[in-house]
Amino acid sequence: MAKLERFYNTFQPDHYDVFIDINRAEKTINGKTTITGSATDPQIAINQKNLQITSVQADGQELDFKIDNDAEAVRITLPQTGKVTFTVTYNTKLTDSMMGIYPSYYEVNGEKKQIIGTQFETTFARQAFPCVDEPEAKATFSLAIKFDEHPGETIIANMPEDHVENGIHYFEPTVRMSTYLVAFAFGELQSKITETKGGVKVGVFATKAHQPKELDFALDIAKRAIDFYEDFYQTPYPLPHSWQLALPDFSAGAMENWGLVTYREAYLLLDPDNTSLEMKQLVATVITHELAHQWFGDLVTMKWWDDLWLNESFANMMEYVAVDALQPDWHIWELFQTSEAPMALQRDATDGVQSVHVNVNNPAEIDALFDGAIVYAKGSRMLVMVRALLGDEALREGLKNYFAAHKYGNATGADLWKALGDASGLNIGKIMNSWLEQPGYPVVTAKINADGDLVLSQKQFFIGDGKDVDRQWQIPLNSNYDEAPQIMAEQKLNLGNYQALRNKNSQPFRLNLGNNSHFIVKYDEPLLNDILDHADELDPITQRQLLQDLRLLAQGQQVSYASLIPLLKQFKDSTSAIVNAELYQIANSLKMFAKPDSPAEQELRQFFDLLSKDQVKRLGWLPKAGESNDDQLTRPYILSASLFARNNDAITQAHQIFIENQDKLESLSADIRGLVLKNEVQNFGNTELFNKLIKVYQQTADASFKQDLRMAIPNTTDPALIAKVVGYFENADVIKPQDLRAWYRGLLANKAGQQAAWNWLRDDWQWLNDTVGGDMEFATFITVTAGVFHTPERLSEFKDFFEPKLNTPGLTREIKMDISVIESKVNLINKEQVAVNKAIAQQS
């Protein structure tokens, strides 16, 4: 295991002159980097990875150097300490791994093209130029880029272009920033540019495979977001421009490079005339997330990767704050309830999960930190709790002071808590450390004891086996009874005589109003029945929260899973999208209790029909002019349920819509397009249809349409076509590596394709490792596999394959947790299968 060595301790860079000459035809890079900085020791090291270094010079003299590939370093002997300047000359290759400097591939009118882009987070700048590749090693950068240029090409970078000389594009020096935020790109790009109120140029860039109108939505959101953030943070955007670039090949969702934010095409570009509201919301939150980073992460950066959450959790919260201000009619905090909250609660209940703040002892562990459910979702829930405690006035004042104190520098979580504490008078650090420094979360049990008192107690909640080590949290209770304190720090709390409290408050007792605190509630039977008797009076977030907490308690075997089934019937006619999202999450989880093609599965299909048929009748298949956001967002849930139920009318209607639009599938309403295509593949599929959809998938540049096709095609039941899908997994001309996980999961979730997908993963693991290994998305192939598997046989096979890989850096935690995830489902099914299937039969 490589030793973690901090090069910044002995050499602090101040400025880089980076010259890079790229030959796309040869896939080669020739570079020369001149670094000025301060050395405290003549023996220094800077980062490099796969660079062929030919010389290191200072004042025209050759310096001794040694390559240390294990440490991803070049060790240099300097002539003296203090202020030094030296130049490293090197060459290397363009990567094809979506890391470092790499090509993105696309087609325009059947002609294959490429653009060059960069991805330097976490530690990939060292693959492009030698540097101290650590967040704390902030410096200024002057980029000079040369490439095999032809007419009509555009080059962009963090800063504006200064001049072009002898085919070299020189860019203005950057402000002080971390290496992982450096970025540039070039190729045949189109763009649309506007300006904020404060004079910041805002642009959206994409390949010419896209319609110009696909850039409009992002341009509008980005411009308004920067105006919003300048006001909210009370700190000006510090650069002259903010470019948003869609890359055809991009591993993550997006990356906050300062001044040149890069995105997957699906998360930046959309057709304003045919994109679902859900997709518009997703794109808007991705853009506002990355732009939140331009201050929180870029202007002030975590000191080291153990405080990654400081960047990501905050941006994750702010994306919702911003979109709520820009599009109040979307009620975007409801999306927070259906995405961040359940993701965090599910993952954080598995024993062995990482805490939000994690020490990093090995460079290979850095990418493993990017656990979306914890660092992003749970962390943002922590900050939502802080916001609720502080209020926006104190939050904004604290942030303003935080940016002023640390701008162009680095900070830790303690620095943020100090700034917020000074602004609010609250000891935020004390409250938050109980959440950030330990994994998991509590279940608060509310019960009426033998004396008639209402008693609250906290205990760590686990799904599956978990070792209880008596963890306690400072819990913001957010109760509707004033008798409950603001913060519960004790293990147990007696609120007094329940009947007296109930009479005084004239409403059922509830905790965690708004579902903003990171805990779940287990009400005893009288308290729960009191709430359910008044369920119609509850707002949608509370109704959803009730179902969510009961589902988690059932998964943790603290209440009967069968007891959830009558509740689904009680809420089946809800017009709230977020209630339906949770209702169908529970309903879909029932599928694991019914063996394929069994009488129990048939009864489950009938139950799905019971749940969905009135809603299908109410909403219909096609969107209606002027319908509510809730109806638009609910339709996919109930149509999907109706198709699973094998409702003849639903299958026939979907087929008819396909027939009427088979020559213009791209223009089919994006709200239902994926379901129509999936129905066609499942129920009317043949080789001709398969080949047609694959061809359309390859040709379309519409990322939303591509996503619908990716959802539909893996549902084929034909063994020959399943084999074809698997054959495409390693053919980047059909399935790009960035999209492979979605294809794999789709086939794995298809009972007809599961064996073929699982065989491929095991047989070609080395290929997968070579192709996407070392990337923050790699471990999620394990996660999605565990998400599908739930039988003893699959558990055994999963352990046989992954346990020998337990010592692989970056995979250890994921493998251990996912074994636990599958085990918990196997045990739950073994315990509850009879009762669940009986309850379904009684409802159907």
Question: Please, could you describe this protein's structure?
Answer:
With 844 residues, the chain is of the alpha+beta class. It folds into five domains: 1-187, tricorn interacting facor f3 domain (Immunoglobulin-like, Sandwich), CATH 2.60.40; 190-294, Orthogonal Bundle (Neutral Protease, domain 2); 306-437, Orthogonal Bundle (Neutral Protease, domain 2); 441-542, Sandwich (Immunoglobulin-like); 550-843, Alpha Horseshoe (Zincin-like fold). 42% of the residues lie in helices and 20% in strands. The protein has 27 helices and 28 strands. The strands form eight sheets. An eight-stranded mixed beta sheet has the order 5-4-8-2-1-11-14-13, with no helix packed on it. Helix 12 (540-555) packs parallel to helix 14 (577-589). The longest helix is centred in the last third of the chain and has 32 residues, at 812-843. It is globular and about 85 Å long. The mean pLDDT is 96. Residues 12-181 form the Aminopeptidase N-like N-terminal domain. Monomer. Residues 511-823 form the ERAP1-like C-terminal domain.
> Roughly how many Å is the radius of gyration?
28 Å
CATH class of the largest domain: Mainly Alpha
CATH architecture of the largest domain: Alpha Horseshoe
Across the major sheet, the strand order is 5-4-8-2-1-11-14-13
Q: How much of the residues is beta strand, in percent?
A: 15-25%
Please give the largest β-sheet. 8 strands, mixed
Structural class: alpha+beta
- Taking the alpha carbons of the first and last residues, their distance comes to 57 Å
Number of strands: 28
List the uncertain runs: none
Mean pLDDT over the full residue set? 96
How many domains comprise the coordinates?
A: 5
Overall shape: it is globular
Percent range of helical residues: 40-55%
CATH topology of the largest domain: Zincin-like fold
| Count of DSSP H/I helices | 27
